[in-house]
Amino acid sequence: MGQEFVLLISASVFCVGACGFIIRKNPLIMFMSVELMLNSVNFLLIAYSSFLNSLDGQIFALIIMTVAAAEVVVGLAIILTIFRTRHEMDVDHINALKG
Q1: Which residue from 34, 46, 64, 84 lies 20 to 30 Å from 55 (Cα-Cα)?
Q2: Looking at the domain assignment, is residue 61 inside a domain?
Q3: Which residues of 11-48 are buried (b: 16+ CB within 10 A; e: fewer)?
């Protein structure tokens, strides 16, 4: 597996995630798109960590996965709360969290 292949795969997955985040209006799809972008960066970090025989990239990937897990927990809790109160999932119509 060469460096060009790793860059191509990572860039394509990141672009799919970015397009999904920009185009879609469903918050769940948007969160999955953000996770795709984070996973493409993790793939790149781990691949280059292997190429350079260093553990730094793997450590950063572990930190990114931890932050992503915390983000998903908080984000899904907010989405669930909004859906329970408003019964809609369109991001354009959610402009403020009012209690």
Answers
A1: 34
A2: yes
A3: eebbeebeebbeeeeebeebbebbebbbbbbbbbbbbb
